[in-house]
Amino acid sequence: MSDVEPLFFAQAALYGCIHRSSSPATTGAVLIAPLFGELIQHHRAYYVLAEALADAGVPVIRYDHYGTGDSQGDLDDASVGRWVDDVASACQALVARTAVTRVHLIGARLGAAVAVAAAPRIGRAAGIVLWEPVRDGASHLAELLTTHRRVLGVYTDGNGDHGTREVLGFEIGPRLWDELERFDPSVARLSPMVDVSVFATRKTLAKWQAPDGYASWSCEEVQHPRGWLDPEEGMYDVLVPAAVVSGISKWIQARL
Amino acid sequence: MIEKLQCFGSHARLVGIAAAGARPRRHAAVVLANSGVVHRIGANRISVAVARRLAADGFDTLRFDMSGLGDSSARDDGLAWESSAPLELSEGVDLVTRDYDRPVVLYGNCGGAAKSLWAARRDERVRGLVLTNPPPHPAERELDSSGTDLAERALETVATDLEVLFARGVCAAFVYAEGDEGLDYYDRRLAPRLAGGPADARLDVVRIARSNHTFSPAVARRAALEHIHDWVVGRFGQYDDA
Questions:
Q1: Residue A107 in contact with residue A129, Cβ under 8 Å?
Q2: pTM (2 decimals)?
Q3: Looking at the partner chain, which of B3, B45, B218 has a beta carbon nearest the beta carbon of A160?
Q4: Which domains does chain B have, with CATH numbers?
Q5: CA B23 centroid distance within chain
Q6: ipTM
Q7: A/B interface, count of CB pairs below 8 Å
Q8: What 8-state DSSP symbol labels residue B133?
Q9: Where are the domains of chain A?
């Protein structure tokens, strides 16, 4: 079991945990969480993944985006731009507290899109893992809304006061909603020097092709446990997809 | 609002966040339990909202992950969760009463409600319970092979537990989503059993309209939050210097 250090960073605005490796290491990982209910579903899986990586000699930071989880603020004052900045803050926090000089970014769902947007700004990025990635904000919102209407439509149509929309227990104001709808990070902007791996179901993999000229691009088909990304009564089951966690850990270890 | 990290626990590294109550500070503190296996922020982040709302109104709060959940490690002694949960909640109570004796309110949703009830039975520092959607006893639908109604015995256990607590001076609020199976159990079984006893003065029951089990609709969640806040203030709102 690794040494886990909870911390506040970025002027105490962000909450996270650093999982230290037993020996000093120069390659680390930044775990970028999904958003909304999917953040809650992935939380323990991220803990287990961080433990596996730290045990394998890779220090890790995982954290809550601004306005989510235990970080300060709420969705009213959050923004996609802030979430992209948070990746750099998390990277700096890891570098400042360990011997890490290069990092792999690991993002699931909308966190994967945030990782793609942030990667060009992180000079230390050596690799990116995209776990069941969301391609863009608009398609993600459409998917969440469809699910919301299916499981919570009997209680609420999703339209709140002052242009606020509800998706599965989270209220999103018009400013953030518009920003998410326009959020469309392009993998074509990634440096071909950065290794990329997509861990996803067959259906999702079909939407993820390597950009032209991109050599270090791999895909691994995965299967998730029953109930994964399929909330009942508006609540996702908290599960740990052990095979996916193991696969991502091995991919990182192969690049140390 | 000032929030501080807390790492504590004798058999696991329990991770939590303590929020210092705003001035003027209230005398009581509130400890929030995990809902089922959801980490300490709660479904729809409701535990963060509850903790911060109460802290903004003067209550010290502590939300933390029990062993094997969220950011907390597994226990080193292999104790089952039914036994470890009340012990770990008491360790949370230790933390908020470390500097001085004070009444403590436990908040728990669903499985967290059950854990909070068990903790209150063994820890006399607990003076209040806010239980949202406390579930029916698991034996409610079962009969044993000899035909004895296990559900009756289970009901008696729950009712007796509550009456012992009420006799000790504990106050409780049950906050139910309309249509929740826990509310059906309360109306059909528990309320008739408790009627005419100390529950009449010490138990308040709130029903939240048009809601699911986790208060996912925003209107319902806000209503639950306000009821919880108002109940804690109404029952435990004494200021530190009063």
A1: yes
A2: 0.96
A3: B218
A4: 3-236 (3.40.50.1820)
A5: 25
A6: 0.96
A7: 83
A8: S
A9: 3-136+185-253
Percentages of chain A per state (helix, strand, coil), in multiples of 5: 40, 25, 40
Length of chain A: 256
Residues of chain A with C-beta less than 8 angstroms from the C-beta of B36 = 238
Q: CB contact, 8 Å: B207 with chain A?
A: no
B5–A155: do the CB atoms touch at under 8 Å? no
Q: What is the pLDDT of residues B124-175, one digit of tens each?
A: 999 999 999 999 887 776 655 565 678 888 899 999 999 999 999 999 999 9
Token pair for residue A225? Answer: 């446990």
How far is residue A160 CA from its own chain's centroid?
27
Q: Do A68 and B45 touch (CB under 8 A)?
A: yes
Exposed/middle/buried for residue B205 (C-beta within 10 Å: 0-12, 13-18, 19+): middle
Fold of A3-136+185-253: Rossmann fold (3.40.50)
Residue found by looking up tokens 């209230």 in the block: B26
A45 touches chain B (CB under 8 A): no
Cβ distance A43 to B15 less than 8 Å, yes or no, reads: no
3-state secondary structure A170-199: EEECHHHHHHHHHCCCCHHHCCCCCEEEEE
Chain B residues near residue A37 by CB distance under 8 angstroms = 44
Whether the CB of A73 is below 8 Å from some CB of chain B: the reply is no
B 16-35: CB under 8 A from A: 17
Q: How far is A73 from chain B (nearest CA, A)?
A: 11
DSSP string of A7-45? EEETTTTEEEEEEE-SS--SEEEEEE---THHHHHHHHH
User: Helices A80-97 and A110-118, interaxial angle, to 10°?
Assistant: 70
Reduce the DSSP state of residue A102 to 3 states and report it: strand
Residue-wise burial string across A66-93, b where 16 or more C-beta atoms lie within 10 A, e elsewhere: bbbbbbbebbeebebebbbbbbbbbbeb
Interface contact flag, A233 B219, Cβ < 8 Å: no
* Burial (CB count <10 Å: 0-12, 13-18, 19+), residue A205: middle
| Residue B215 Ramachandran class (φ > 0 left, ψ -120 to 50 alpha, else beta) | left
Mutate which: B2, B7, B41, B225, vs A, most A CBs within 10 A:
B41
pLDDT value, residue A1: 64
